[in-house]
Design goal:
Length: about 350
């Protein structure tokens, strides 16, 4: 077989581990030839690719980022983009394209599969918001980095009896915020799924500190929103892909909490730190298992599918089921795990 590989969307730790697994499985088990498209679907559209083999993948397992580069370029939004992408695959005689990406890249993969391209998807994003898979590549590392930061915020908060607001990524969903908040011992976690009321939160914090508790950690996802009419937020900038450029809600939350509680509040924005650097062992294992399973799916002709973690096993799900909506937090989970840490 001739196989093309790409990484699209925002990068995350573990992409190189997935590329390496694809290359090794395809080469060792099947004797395939591989090319890596540069910068996601843009590379397919513009026929920009490099040869990939085992030698090229040596040493990349622990490295963050992606040796192929990435972008959010969508051929469906570029003039003649789809036709050009399909022509590239045909001209190169590719039997399969393995697309490693989040909701955007996998959505394009689904449309390409519907247009007849032999595509298999692999889910990655630190946000963990892809449907039909328990976890995506990159999420575990992002949570680990956030928890290390929160542990550090605890000790400085205790010294000063301060409220520490820690903003993490999470445009539409609060997986990173909730998991890092739980693991890091946050008192309050604010997520996009559940609009917040800062006055009520300020009362909880004041009560906590009045009881002699100190070091309140508030974890806020960048996409968290106040309940309508409770707090004005400045309008977000829009990037070239029509996405809101988020980041900054933490500063607003810290400023308002300081005003309402009269306690000293500080903010730390983790932002892209969560996306960079070396992947955790859990992400390396997940990426490796996904990469192997994607090559097997391609050899079984299971195009239009995505490999997914369901419980302990790797399964195939349809790209149609996996894309279109995001996997958000279950409100019952938010409720059950956050209530007991308020006091
Ligand atoms: O990868 C998803 C994500 O981490 C979102 O949580 C965040 O809003 C977005 O990427 C920011 O990406 P960029 O700065 O690359 O546009």
């Amino acid at each position: 077989m001739r196989v093309g590989v790409l990484t699209g969307g925002g990068d995350c730790p573990g992409l190189n581990a997935a590329i390496r697994a694809v290359v090794r499985k395809a080469t060792v088990t099947f004797g395939d030839e591989l090319v890596g498209f540069r910068n996601g679907w843009q590379g397919v559209m513009e026929d920009d690719a490099i040869p990939l083999d085992i030698a090229r993948c040596r040493g990349i397992l622990p490295r963050g980022g992606t040796i192929l580069g990435t972008s959010r370029i969508n051929p469906f939004k570029a003039p003649g983009g789809v036709e050009r992408a399909i022509a590239t695959v045909e001209r190169r005689g590719l039997d399969a394209v393995i697309a490693i990406g989040g909701e955007g890249t996998l959505g394009i993969s689904r449309q390409m599969a519907e247009a007849g391209m032999p595509v298999v998807g692999v889910p990655k994003t630190i946000d963990n918001d892809v449907n039909c898979t328990d976890y995506t590549i990159g999420f575990d590392t992002a949570v680990q980095v956030a928890v290390e930061a929160i542990d550090r915020l605890h000790t400085t908060a205790e010294s000063h009896d301060r409220v520490m607001v820690c903003e993490v990524m999470g445009r539409h969903v609060g997986w990173i915020a909730l998991y890092s908040g739980l693991a890091g011992g946050a008192a309050i976690v604010l997520v996009p799924e559940e609009p917040f009321d800062l006055e009520a939160i300020a009362q909880h914090i004041s009560r906590r500190h009045a009881k002699g508790r100190f070091a309140t950690i508030v974890v806020v996802a960048e996409g968290a929103k106040p309940k309508p009419g409770t707090l004005d937020l400045p309008p977000a900038e829009i990037d070239q892909y029509d996405h809101e450029r988020l980041g900054g809600i933490g500063a607003v939350v810290a400023r308002e909490l300081e005003r309402l509680t009269h306690l000293e509040c500080r903010v730390t924005i983790l932002g892209h730190v969560l996306r960079g650097g070396t992947p955790t062992s859990a992400d390396r294992v997940l990426a490796t298992r996904f990469g192997i399973a994607a090559v097997e799916a391609a050899h079984d002709g299971a195009f239009g599918t995505m490999v997914a973690l369901r419980g302990a096993s790797i399964e195939r799900v349809s790209l149609k089921d996996a894309t279109g909506t995001l996997k958000s937090l279950d409100p019952a989970l938010i409720e059950s795990v956050t209530r007991i840490f308020l006091d």
